[in-house]
Design brief:
The chain is built from five helices and no strands. It is an all-alpha fold and about 120 residues long.
Length: about 120
C-alpha cells in the first residue's frame, strides 16, 4: 500500500506541475477572455484518461500504472474544480452567454475526448 501511495504522490506532483506549465503557456498565447488554459487542460486530461484506461482494459498497459497515472498524474493535472469556480466567476460578472458556451464546450469536448482516447487506447491492443 505504501508503494502505491508513493506512486500516486509522485504522479500527482508531476501532474500539478504539468498543469501549471500547460495552463500558463495556453493563457499566454490565447489571453484571459475565457479560461482557455483550464479548457485545454480538461480536454487533454479527458483524452489521456481515455487512452490510459483503454490501454489498461486491453492489457496493453499494466493495471499497476493506474494509481500513478490516473489517480496521481491526472488527479493533479485536471482542473474541474477550477472549471466550476471560473464558470461561477463568469456568471457573477454577468457573462451568462460566455458561461453557457464554456460549460457546454467543456462537457462536449471532454466527452468527445474521452471517447476518442478510449478508442485510441483500445486500438493499441
Amino acid at each position: 500500500m505504501m508503494r502505491e501511495l508513493l506512486w500516486v504522490a509522485f504522479g500527482g506532483a508531476f501532474g500539478a506541475v504539468t498543469r501549471v506549465l500547460v495552463g500558463t503557456a495556453v493563457t499566454e498565447r490565447l489571453g484571459v477572455l475565457l479560461p482557455y488554459g483550464t479548457f485545454v487542460i480538461n480536454a487533454t486530461g479527458c483524452l489521456l484518461i481515455g487512452v490510459i484506461m483503454g490501454g489498461i482494459q486491453t492489457q496493453v498497459l499494466p493495471a499497476g500504472l493506474r494509481p500513478a497515472l490516473v489517480v496521481g498524474f491526472l488527479g493533479g493535472y485536471t482542473t474541474f474544480s477550477a472549471f466550476g469556480f471560473e464558470t461561477l466567476v463568469l456568471l457573477e460578472e454577468g457573462h451568462l452567454l460566455l458561461a453557457v458556451v464554456y460549460v457546454l464546450a467543456s462537457v462536449l469536448v471532454g466527452l468527445g475526448a474521452v471517447a476518442l482516447g478510449l478508442w485510441m487506447g483500445r486500438a493499441l491492443g
